[in-house]
Specification:
Elements (H helix, E strand, L loop, with lengths): L3 H8 L9 E8 L2 E8 L6 E11 L10 E7 L6 E4 L11 E8 L3 E11 L2 E11 L5 H33 L1
Antiparallel strand pairs: 1-2, 2-3, 3-6, 4-5, 4-7, 7-8
Length: about 170
């Protein structure tokens, strides 16, 4: 029971929240467009890009827009076109789309929002890190069983010594 609290503190580092981190926030026309990415930090491989659309006055969420997203890797012909939807998002206030990022570096991002006959565009950049080494992130999970077995063996030896002293 004494080990439960420290283990919970260590385990919290591996818990991920929904939504990711904010990469861009811009005002375009009568909307505020916020772009979230996950994983954090954004790295080469599978990624989730989510957008929150809000009315500029009052910041109420906009749920009736047609959104398209274009990511361009500069100096190459790599372009990723996706249409984020609310159906793909866990949080139904967001528009989300899964993507596969193939290169590290700065990607250009362009968000086009079509709503009520108007098209609004917000543009910026995303910094994509090199792929992470998954071995290090699994080290805690791999080390846990041997550590627990070792602690159990030490405990049993201490209990045997204590019982021999009492006898």
């Amino acid at each position: 029971m004494k080990l439960l609290f420290p283990l919970l503190i260590l385990a919290q580092a591996t818990v991920f929240a929904d939504g990711g981190s904010i990469q861009m926030r811009q005002e375009a026309g009568d909307l505020v467009i916020t772009v979230f990415t996950s994983p954090t930090p954004l790295s080469v491989g599978p990624a989730d890009i989510s957008l929150l659309l809000q009315k500029r006055d009052g910041l109420e969420p906009v749920l009736d827009a047609d959104v398209s997203l274009l990511l361009v890797y500069p100096g190459s012909n790599i372009e990723l076109h996706v249409h984020p939807t609310r159906e793909q998002a866990r949080n139904k206030l967001l528009y989300a789309a899964p993507m596969m990022l193939s290169k590290a570096g700065k990607w250009g991002i362009s968000v086009t929002v079509a709503r009520k006959g108007k098209a609004l565009i917000a543009a910026g950049t995303l910094e994509v890190a090199p792929p992470t080494d998954r071995t290090l992130s699994l080290a805690g999970f791999l080390a846990f069983p041997p550590i627990m077995i070792g602690l159990f063996v030490v405990r049993e030896r201490l209990l045997r010594r204590a019982s021999r002293r009492q006898a």
